Amino acid sequence: MEEQKGAAEAESLLEDLGFDSLPIKVEQFINAVSDNSFPINIEFHGFSADQFLGKAVGSDEGAAIIVNSNIPDSRRLNFTAAHEAGHVCMHIMQGVSQNFACGDSELRDYFKNPLERQANGFASGLLMPKRLVKSITDGDINWYNIKQISDKCDTSLEAAFRRLSWLEKAPVAMVIHQNKQFKRFVSTKHFDFYIQQTNLSNEQMASCTNAIHEGFPSDFDSVDPIDWVTPEHKGMHLSELYASSILLNEGFIYTILSYDDDCLEDTDVDD
């Protein structure tokens, strides 16, 4: 998996360079990697939102990273800088390619481009290295733990969810709505059921925790799977599903879906 390759490379570099506390500052990391034989500069400049998020350019003599300082979310900006650092360390320094411009088109083609996936994995491993993140939480994938990682590592909730769910290898998914309207979802390879891409019902909205005022919960509700997923897959029936929804700014609702072995029933019948 390309993301795992990127994360492993970042974690190896952090250990070699002696980074042993959070948060990892991208500019400090770049300064540590840079030397006289291969100088690396990182700069932040304002561009229109549709131009690009970040760039990494270089040669066999050095490299430069340019990050769009107009990215409105500071944590997304931080992840973008770490992503471009991944291009420098894994691709430019290794002679794979010398010019990367990352924007909306690259995001759309993300799964078709192994280099972009490697850079994303690098950013995840750089900002949230396994050996340091593991000490922050008890390992359970819930909003409280995700929030701890997000705050400590200066990353978005989605990035923290992706990292924690990959480290724990659990059957979980995150579904994103805005003002009840379905936007998208993120699921792990361990989550076997098709997610319904539907808008939220009034009942589902009522079960949300207002994270802005009430904090981030660690508990889940037991819900009818049919409200969220197609509960049949390869001879298995999902009889129960766990859900935890939070309401954030701008009407965004993030929901974690999870299940365990007790939720599964075998529907195959032997003759």
Automatic annotation (TrEMBL):
It comes from the Bacteria. Residues 61-165 form the IrrE N-terminal-like domain. InterPro entries: IrrE_HExxH, Rad_response_metalloprotease. Transmembrane segments: none annotated. PANTHER family: ANTITOXIN HIGA1, BLL7220 PROTEIN. This is IrrE N-terminal-like domain-containing protein. It comes from Idiomarina fontislapidosi.
